[in-house]
Amino acid sequence: MAKDGKSPLHHPQTQFTHVGRPPAGLGTAVNPDITRASTLLFDRAEDLYRSDIRGYGRHGSAGHDALIEAFNLLEGGAGTTLAQSGLAACTLPILANVKAGDHLLLTDSSYGPTRHFCQKYLKGIGVETEMYDPRIGGGIDALIRNNTAVIMMESPGSLTFEIQDIPAITKAAKAKGVTTIIDNTWSAGLSLKPLALGVDISCHAATKYFGGHSDVMFGATISAAPAMAKKVALTAKYLGYATSPDDAYQILRGFRTVVHRFRQSEKTALSLALWLNDQDKVQQVLHPALPTHTDYAIWKRDFTGTACLFGVILKPCSEAEVLAFINALKIFGIGYSYGGFESLAIHCDPQLTRQHSDSLGGPLVRFACGLEAVEDLKNDIEQALEKIN
């Protein structure tokens, strides 16, 4: 605490350097210890059934508590439940808020595995999923039924990068008592604060930016209100959710440097997007910070920055040429995910499923920028573009 009584931790990079750390003592470790345990012992039998203490290893450890504190700080949340993966972090709050006979509205631009969960698993337990146009804004009011329980958003949309009018959607949802959830992985909670825009629950695939090194799976579900946080946490308990203390330690470690890594990859992605926008073989760049993006005005209003991930629509060419282009990349790896130290590229067309979007008019390639020098990445793309005739 500073001399004036105010906290000196004003900036995210400072906050995340210090959050969840044990008080300094004589030779104190800078991070919480890793506690590997299933059984927790008590010296008194009457304490075994207390509800105010941790009774079993599945319920976490001091390291998990520190990580929860970090995610609450990130989003301004009232409570966080940790999950084994990003997908688990998205499906958990949905399961906590739906029952048989309910109706769910899911953005048509959602993450593929979330879409599959809603359309296949939820259907099997009597929950109907309806896809909505990600650019619907306040018009979503007309889709809300008496049995609508959840609206699931993602902004920007996965693969196609539509920006949703979050305040308009949450306003319509609150007026009718509908829970709103958003997959906020793209922004890492650094360039978008959805809870401040009225969203009830924000989800993260911590596998990505917070893991940072493509070697750990993890997720986090952050609730705006204590009652919702308790509801999600109880659902996780009923389902038997548990996360490894070693994985929690790695994600907390990732918090220490996430701002610096995120800003570097964000800067690289914008530089590449601007450069690609001028390439002859590129039809359109799907990056919300470009004034040519359809939703640029909404992005500028609600976001404070961008991220490492964007898409490129190539001018019409054969699938063989697209594959040859991606295979010719030497620095960009070919693989799912993003937010790690390495840059990645994927051909998106085989996984594109949309009900409410126009034809893209050309093949879609997604780039995830890592920590390499931007000039090397440009040179890599430039030589690979020669494979397209």
User: What is the topology, as strand order, of the major beta sheet?
Assistant: 1-7-6-5-4-2-3
What is the radius of gyration? 22 Å
Task: State the distance separating the first and last CA atoms.
Answer: 62 Å
Structural class: alpha/beta
Beta strand count: 11
Largest sheet: 7 strands, mixed
> What is the count of structural domains?
2
Instruction: Fill in the CATH topology of the largest domain.
Output: Aspartate Aminotransferase, domain 2
CATH homologous superfamily label of the largest domain:
Type I PLP-dependent aspartate aminotransferase-like (Major domain)
How would you explain this protein's 3D organization?
By secondary structure, the protein is of the alpha/beta class. It has two domains: 12-255, 3-Layer(aba) Sandwich (Aspartate Aminotransferase, domain 2), CATH 3.40.640.10; 259-385, Aspartate Aminotransferase, domain 1 (Alpha-Beta Complex). It contains eleven helices and eleven strands. It has helices at 12-18, 62-75, 86-97, 112-124, 166-175, 226-239, 245-255, 258-276, 296-302, 319-328, 374-385, and strands spanning 79-83, 103-107, 128-132, 148-154, 179-183, 201-204, 219-223, 282-286, 309-314, 344-347, 364-368. The strands form two sheets. A seven-stranded mixed sheet has the order 1-7-6-5-4-2-3, sandwiched between helices. β2 (103-107), α4 and β3 (128-132) form a beta-alpha-beta unit. The longest helix has 19 residues, at 258-276. The chain is globular, with a radius of gyration of 22 Å. The chain starts with 11 loop residues before the first helix and ends with a helix. The relative contact order is 0.13. The model is unreliable at 1-6 (pLDDT under 50).
